[in-house]
Amino acid sequence: MYELEIRRRRYLYFWHYETKGGVRRQVKDYVGSAAAPESSAKATRLCEAYYARADRDLRRLRAETLAALAARGR
Fold it and tell me: Is 46 exposed, middle or buried (0-12, 13-18, 19+ CB in 10 A)?
């Protein structure tokens, strides 16, 4: 999350990384006015969804890696 000031107003953005077509890039999604309570709620939902995806990806990678290492030991 980060705030950006434009014309003396503060805005909230959620930034994260995405991989598309084998290229990893930073993505900045506009959330809303930094002063608005609904922006904080939306930012919380975006963070929770991002971390849930990251957790799934890490668990999948862990399982694949351990399975590959176990297969080597046979």
Answer: middle
In tens, the pLDDT along 19-63 reads 888 899 999 999 999 999 999 999 999 999 999 999 999 999 999
Q: In whole angstroms, give the CA distance from residue 43 to residue 69.
A: 39
Q: Name 15's bridge partners.
A: 28
Q: Output the pTM of the full model.
A: 0.75
Q: How far is CA 35 from CA 18, 38, 39, in A?
A: 27, 9, 8
Residue given tokens 């890490």 in the structure block = 58
